[in-house]
Write a structure and sequence with these properties.
single chain; 272 residues; alpha+beta; Chondroitinase Ac, Chain A, domain 3; 3 domains; 8-stranded mixed beta sheet; 5-stranded antiparallel beta sheet; 17 strands; 15% helix; globular
Length: 272
Amino acid sequence: MIKFVLTLMMMLSVITVTTLEVEGVTAGNITVSGEATTTLIGGSTVTYTSPSGGGGGGGGLSAENFTNIEVNEKYDLYIYKDKVTSYRFTSSGNPVLFVNITGNTSPGDIRTSVEVLRDTSTLVKEHAPGIVYRNANIWVGTSGFAVPKNIKEAVIRFRVENTWISSSGLSQSDIRMFKWDGSSWLMLETDAKGQDESHSYFESKTNSFSSFAISGFKGTYVPTVSKPAAGVTAMAGTDQDTDTTQAEKSPGFEVAIMITVMSAVYLSWKKK
């Protein structure tokens, strides 16, 4: 159970968490003013930048299991049509460095958050393909906003430790970003963008947001879609079955049945 009480002082851009209880463990008072990074229970960190003005695109509470979130970093910026808005993430525990969004609309102030996870997201049905480096949820705006209708293109820039790549028997060309589309993992277009002594850098393109995974994957990937239940498949039947079903559902069919039944009842009544 998660229980918290928030005291908001928007004019001062201050958020005070007076009580935070997670599975019976209570943390003390936490105050976030402007931009700050605060250590919470279990080593989780939260970075929040308060908006400079009012906006209609703030995100709500995440559906992710709280205990699976290691880092939660979020920022509020304006998104404009046909212009790039660059969200920069600075937490050392966050592999995502930038989320650059080009809008299809101009919705105004929009919150973008990255939840770095300890394990596979609790919102997906299966582990991502390959050797997973990190799992993360990326949320943009409120529910239903982060779709192609509102987002023309987005580029996610991320980093992977060089030691992890080599110890996993991988090369830069094997690093991929996967996105959960609701039923399967999709491999995004991913390009290597250089490296330094500690990290290699990559960019992936998308036009919607959900759960993501940074993974090392060799070979060709073919996504598997969740199969329907056996009963559903059997009900589909042959083309003849489909035609019959459509005929039964065609306009006037139910009316004809009702007239037939009423006629039979009327004739039976007259005979009596």
